[in-house]
Amino acid sequence: MRLILLILLIFTLNPHSVKADNEDVYKGLSNFTRVLDLIQRNYVESVDGEELTTKAIEGMLRGLDPYSAYLSPERYRELEIGTSGEFGGVGMQVTTENGYLKVITPIEGGPSEKAGIKPRDLVVEIEGKTTKGMIVQEAVNLLRGPKGSTVNITVEREGSAKPFKVDLVRDKIVVKSVKYELLENNIGYIKLSQFQENSSQELRNALSQLESENGIKLKGVVLDLRNNPGGLLGEAIEVVDEFIDQGLIVSVKGRTKGQEREYYATKNGDFQEYPIVVIVNDGSASASEVVAEALQDNKRATILGTNTFGKGSVQTIIRLEDGSGLKLTTAKFYAPSGRSISEVGVTPDVIVENTSSETKDEQLDTAVEILKSPGIKTAVPKG
Predict the structure, then answer these.
(1) What percentage of residues in the chain have a pLDDT greater than 70?
(2) Which of 177, 199, 200, 286 is catalytic?
(3) Domain identity same for 98 and 49
(4) Cα separation of 168 and 143, whole Å?
């Protein structure tokens, strides 16, 4: 069944592209089935055919980029749970780089953040097993386990003399998408941790609540996207749409014209008068970079902090007949200016290094000072 699914995918995902390469595809499939047959007949030990084809699919996707992956039925279900905001594990968003596991960001309040894991840390071992050549799904399976159990990882960090070990206590991870509070001088603060289902509605609710608590019109809003690893593109687009009433938000371009989409503001937002400062760092990735770049290019917000992660690609989740799935890179994000975010990231308007302590947050303090400035304007383009 798995081999049949593999063949069907090759011929259905992009039929126009495949048509031109039919001869090469048939030759490749012929070699694949021949090798599979030789292994099953002649390998020194008995091997499971389904396991072999699964590994072949995993290897094929691993060779494309760090983000494409095969999802077992269990992992596919876990991914669905993850975008709804609740799952189990150590609270760490990861990718691969140079064959090793790289932290995009620890999830706020999760075991990894509490243990001091930082964006761009390399996880080189899990329970003494090297992550060299390991696919993300395999690493995730090793990191996850019963709540309260411990997993040991070895971390390499830029600036550290040698790798160090960290024990992480697994926990139930609940991602609260939006947190907010009213700051001094009638300034609202919103922390958006991840773009999941209903994040844009939670943002609208937060802004309404801040207005209600303040009693008068807010002087400005700080939108904190630090360590936001991304999530659902549609939610990111709706967040931007709350703050601008015209102009391009983001364009998505794939291999064919049919995969190209442009998303524009709809003039439906209710909160387009606030001056905004967006805080980002090297843990801000993907959909959070779309938001920051769109607000920057449309001259709607001041972007403050440090350069972002640089994950400007779109992964499409494709469900297979047996309940498994593919996470496949099908397109790239492009900012309103036409610039690709991939491997470059968003450069802030105001560079402020993160020197936060338990009592002081330099980036947030600077954002508030900008909004307190008498000359601050909305900078919102009106249609």
Answers:
(1) 88
(2) 286
(3) no
(4) 9
CB 313 within 8 A of CB 64: no
- Which one of the listed residues 241, 311, 324, 327 is annotated catalytic? 311
Tell me, yes or no, if 282 is annotated catalytic: no
Q: Is residue 350 part of a domain?
A: yes
Residue 42 is part of which domain span? 2-63
Q: What would the pLDDT profile of 9-34 be if each residue is shown by its tens digit?
A: 444 455 555 455 667 777 778 888 89
Let me know the angle formed at the C-alpha of 312 by 224 and 317, rounded to the nearest 5 degrees. 100
Q: Please tell me whether the overall predicted TM-score, pTM, comes out greater than 0.70 for this model.
A: yes
The segment with the largest mean pLDDT, out of 58-72, 117-131, 132-146, 173-187, is 117-131
In the numeric block, which tokens belong to residue 108? 């706020």
Q: What is the DSSP string of 114-160?
A: HTT--TT-EEEEETTEE-TT--HHHHHHHH--STT-EEEEEEE-TT-
Identify whether 365 is a catalytic site residue: no
Question: Do 148 and 128 belong together in one domain?
Answer: yes
The verdict on residue 377 lying in a domain is no
For 238-287, what is each residue's pLDDT tens digit?
999 999 989 999 999 998 888 889 999 987 767 778 899 999 999 999 99
Locate tokens 């990111």: which residue?
236
Q: How confident is the model at residue 382 (pLDDT cuts 50, 70, 90)?
A: very low
356: its two tokens: 């936060």
Q: How confident is the model at residue 356 (pLDDT cuts 50, 70, 90)?
A: low
Quick one: 204 and 301 in the same domain?
yes
List, in order, residues 6 or more apart from 111 with CB less than 8 Å away. Answer: 90, 91, 168, 169, 170, 171
297 is catalytic: yes
Please indicate, yes or no, whether residues 276 and 361 belong to a single structural domain of this protein: yes
Is residue 100 located within the same domain as residue 44? no
Catalytic residue among 297, 313, 324, 327, which?
A: 297
